Amino acid sequence: xxxxxxxxxxxxxxxxxxxxxxxxxxxxxxxxxxxxxxxxxxxxxxxxxxxxxxxxxxxxxxxxxxxxxxxxxxxxxxxxxxxxxxxxxxxxxxxxxxxxxxxxxxxxxxxxxxxxxxxxxxxxxxxxxxxxxxxxxxxxxxxxxxxxxxxxxxxxxxxxxxxxxxxxxxxxxxxxxxxxxxxxxxxxxxxxxxxxxxxxxxxxxxxxxxxxxxxxxxxxxxxxxxxxxxxxxxxxxxxxxxxxxxxxxxxxxxxxxxxxxxxxxxxxxxxxxxxxxxxxxxxxxxxxxxxxxxxxxxxxxxxxxxxxxxxxxxxxxxxxxxxxxxxxxxxxxxxxxxxxxxxxxxxxxxxxxxxxxxxxxxxxxxxxxxxxxxxxxxxxxxxxxxxxxxxxxxxxxxxxxxxxxxxx
Length: 408
Ligand SMILES: Nc1nc2c(c(=O)[nH]1)N[C@H]1C(S)=C(S)[C@@H](COP(=O)(O)OP(=O)(O)OC[C@H]3O[C@@H](n4cnc5c(N)ncnc54)[C@H](O)[C@@H]3O)O[C@H]1N2
Ligand code: MOO
Prior knowledge:
Blueprint: H1 9-19, E1 27-31, E2 44-45, E3 55-56, E4 60-63, E5 77-84, E6 99-103, E7 115-118, E8 122-125, E9 128-131, E10 141-142, E11 153-155, H2 163-171, E12 176-180, E13 183-190, E14 194-195, E15 206-207, H3 210-220, E16 223-231, H4 235-248, E17 251-255, H5 266-273, E18 276-281, E19 285-286, E20 292-296, E21 299-304, H6 308-326, E22 336-341, E23 345-346, E24 352-361, E25 366-370, H7 379-382, E26 386-390, E27 396-397, E28 402-407
Parallel strand pairs: 5-6, 13-16, 13-17, 14-15, 17-21, 19-24, 22-25
Antiparallel strand pairs: 1-12, 2-11, 3-10, 4-6, 4-7, 5-9, 8-9, 18-20, 20-21, 22-28, 23-27, 24-25, 24-26, 26-28
Ligand LQZAQKY5 is lined by residues 189, 191, 193-194, 206, 208-211, 255-261, 264, 287, 289-290, 305-308, 310, 375-376.
């Protein structure tokens, strides 16, 4: 009897990190308009103070705060109105005791003042402004360099750029940046039963899902999917296809054929093609136990279990992990929310168990409910908001226990 020689999830991650530690990626200089979802190849050092001058955060009157102390609606203070500061122009004047200038939100503060009274708390009385509320020093002011200081590192190498980051880069005048080239990913789905989603089904056939879910996951991770294909369960056809993909891909994902069936060739074919070959076959995780990981030359190969839930869960645990390692992205924090599990969930100790769940908000608590199903049912994952992880040494979860839901 042949049994899988399984490793734990942590052991598998360590082996993957070791195997692909020296991965070298090219860099490219691109416009920030094309950079969302890309990974920075260099730290970004802020070249200018943001803002470059003290700005008002409200529409109001630029004042010396001391001049407003004690002002109230019943006993207002009076300041002489001098002029207005124009938006986008240098404020070439100085506020002196007893004076004030009108300043719009975002306008430059003149010399001498230290705060701004919101217009709602003032009244115009001829040439005077009646101040009905005091302001503290610094109130309603964004100081020079308060947003960002020249010389700060705003983003580190490996950071994955989000829309707010693109805006920030524009704000510091950095419109072209160095990012890592996109990892080239090839996806091969194996199985005699698989047909393209557009084809009519004959009995015994199913529409290919994994090519699509894995492709979407790779794109979300900032990769370029250069090949998507179905290959029949035929050893030579699979070998030819993998060989071709290895030549121009950083990562090859092979879905199906990872288990022990008489048509499960993935492991042997990888070993046939080149070295060092397969270094993991079997991980103590549920779902996804028959996972394969290998390397040919510098290319990473993953034999993902064919069951659609297993394929995507294993992608998230190991393929995403490798991608973030290659891109030097150390900031990965899987978003989670906490809540109480609604029922007992048994788990076989010895395997890290991923349970698909939904989230229900009640008045005083967040309730986490399992979505039942088998790893062949992708609807189980499509209907879920995330998963709960039951650790290897845990026997299960007890109703009411606090759990973390990792969102996907
Ligand atoms: N005797 C054993 N049988 C199985 C074991 C085992 O340890 N011993 N492990 C089971 C587990 S766990 C899993 S997971 C699967 C893994 O199977 P394979 O990776 O060999 O994949 P296939 O047999 O090719 O397919 C499994 C299942 O998934 C469907 N599938 C495959 N590709 C796609 C696709 N692109 N889109 C949608 N669905 C797909 C396929 O039709 C099968 O139903 O093995 C168990 N068996
Ligand atoms: O452990 Mo397999 O990956 O679920 O069906």
